[in-house]
Amino acid sequence: MLRNTIKDLSTTILNNQSDFDTIKNSVDEIHKHYLETTKIGELGEGVQHMAAIPTASGMALSLNHAAACLLDYRRTAKLLNGMVTLIREKQEQHPNETINIFYAGCGPYAPFVTLVAPLFKASEVQFSVLEINAASIKTAEKLIKALELTNYVKEYHTADAVTFQIPDAKKYHILFSETLDALLYRESYVPILWNMLPQISETCAVIPNNVIIQANLTFPKQEGQDAQKEKEAATILDVREAVKINDGSQSLPKSFAPTTINLAGDDIYYSMIVDTKVHIHNDIWLHRNESSLSIPFEMEIAYPLDAPNVTFFYELKPSVELKLQN
Ligand SMILES: C[S@@+](CC[C@H](N)C(=O)[O-])C[C@H]1O[C@@H](n2cnc3c(N)ncnc32)[C@H](O)[C@@H]1O
Fold first, then answer.
1. Which of these three, 177, 195, 210, is where a domain ends?
2. What is the best residue among 132, 158, 206 to mutate for testing ligand 1's pocket, by most ligand atoms within 8 Å of CB?
3. Binning pLDDT at 50, 70 and 90, where does residue 97 land?
């Protein structure tokens, strides 16, 4: 039975979080089964499965690109670990209750249903899934059926998570939405949290719990030094802090408040590195270069400085991206 094969592979990933080769082999094997079952390799060749879809704020990945996220090995392994740990914590906090999960942006494989549900009974966890891409959610439904997991999924919504009103929102224990890219470029994680956090209960946990964009300054490398020395310069954006101001009555701002970093002073720097720190749950983070989501952006600093100040701001309209102010 395919569901048991996936359950075994999921368990292997959970039990081998620091063994990259085992994670990679298990995820590759899962991918092979999912490809065979959904046949997205065949249907996914057309342009309609390659093009990103505009949302009310930000862009949603095409079916093919969303499917490929599964193969971001450490991302998938850590999100799976975070999700299963969190479900078990919620079970302890709410004994004998079904844990309700809202999954915004499930993609064609809905991995955080299809890898997670086999580890629990349907009386323990129930999912509602939402996806803006109709082809992706249709494929996810097909895979969920093939894995005999239909009794774990209550609702399917084809809708934009940036504007969606969640029915019976307060019942959810967990909101899952991995709708982000490095530097929070283009995708809708921030507008989705802006819309959904005021709807759900205050005790509802979110995965990823937060994203922090942070600037670090590196010093010129000294001879004989292994690692380049660096220091924290500023937090450019702390998503959970930034969206806190919305109690549900506010519309999405055009941008968040800017952050200025002053480079003047006695220190001479080599570069500025902007990191995307993805906090999944508890002590589970995606660190620099562990995933495509946490690839850093590095800018060399040239002396003499043209201007001592560098100002960043996160724009939400018309496009969703981190910008440098001139
Ligand atoms: C990065 S992919 C992740 C797919 C899958 N959840 C995973 O973790 O492998 C994000 C998915 O969220 C969907 N998505 C992005 N923005 C959305 C929005 N505003 N409303 C609904 N779905 C969205 C995309 O279409 C894509 O399928």
1. 210
2. 132
3. very high
